[in-house]
Amino acid sequence: MTDLPVPTLDTADAFAARGQSRVSDYITLLKPRVMSLVVFTGLVGLWLAPGHIHPVLGLVAVAAIAIGAGASGAINMWYDRDIDAVMSRTRNRPIPAGVIAPDDALGFGVLLAIFSVLLMAVATNEVAAALLAFTIAFYVFVYTMWLKRRTPQNIVIGGAAGALPPMIGWAAVTGDVSWASVSLFLLIFMWTPPHFWALSLFCNDDYRRARVPMLPVVSGIAATRRQMLLYTATLLPVGLLPTLTGVAGWGYGVFSLMAGLAFLGHALRVWRAPDGDTGPARAMFRFSLAYLFLLFVALVVDRLVLG
Predict the structure, then answer these.
(1) CB-based burial of residue 84 (10 Å sphere; 0-12 exposed, 13-18 middle, 19+ buried)?
(2) Which terminus of the chain has a lower count of CB atoms within 10 Å, N or C?
(3) Residue 65 to residue 56: CA distance in whole angstroms
């Protein structure tokens, strides 16, 4: 970890923090907004997979994905408490705010991680459980503890963790990994860098203050804008992979192409924006959330309408 000041709790403060903690504080540890997108993409992966799973077991599998995602978020908040304390958008999280003791957050996250993997193994199969365990481990050890503080490629490589849930949902039904499920993985994987780099452009001061080597901090605004444009252009054909692998039909393909062109339009506006103008980056960030959500909705609608 870096030499940033770490907010510590002595014994008395730790007990005080435990006494002040509420259920909502522990829910915040799970990063519910991030979890909601993870759960949705995992559910869509399960829905699209060929074969059959009992609805109750399917719900349990989705719950296991949600719990695993929440566990990853809690452990991430424990490890990043020094960074969170100096960033304006994260300083009110439960640990830097002093309402949950760091050790409590870590224990909570570890217990949830173990439980989620065991639950997935019992409810579905070893492949889905192994993928879930790998996802949690990758997010915690590879992204949080290694990449995030050491390289501007943290989001590029670390994005694999957030891209795996549809593969987990798919494997919960089929018990395997296929090119079809990999196409869903690649869609999220290529979406992640421009999504987070848009955020980093208008939170650049926060990342610089916390000494997190996000691309704008290390390489500058202009280089970040070029990379965003490159990745968004690459995402355009990647968005068609579910059609090409047979996961979806051309109804989804047409929608994906239109949404991809709109996303590329946002990237072009960011690229052309005057120095100091963060408005296009904010707009691209908001659109990126809608883009991914609507593409996965389109996958479901395509299957329902076209079979």
Answers:
(1) buried
(2) C
(3) 14
Predicted pLDDT at 250: 93
pLDDT of res. 275: 87
CATH number of 22-176: 1.10.357.140
Q: What is the mean pLDDT of residues 28-41?
A: 92
| Single-letter amino acid, residue 52 | H
Residue 307 has pLDDT above 80, yes or no: no
Task: Determine the Cα–Cα distance for residues 212 and 199; give it in Å rounded to an integer.
Answer: 13
Q: Check residues 276 and 154 and name the one with the higher pLDDT.
A: 154
* Predicted pLDDT at 22: 86
Q: Where are the domains positioned within the chain? A: 22-176, 178-307
| Sequence-ordered list of residues with C-beta below 8 angstroms from that of 292, at least 6 positions apart, any chain | 37, 41, 187, 188, 191, 195
pLDDT at 20: 54
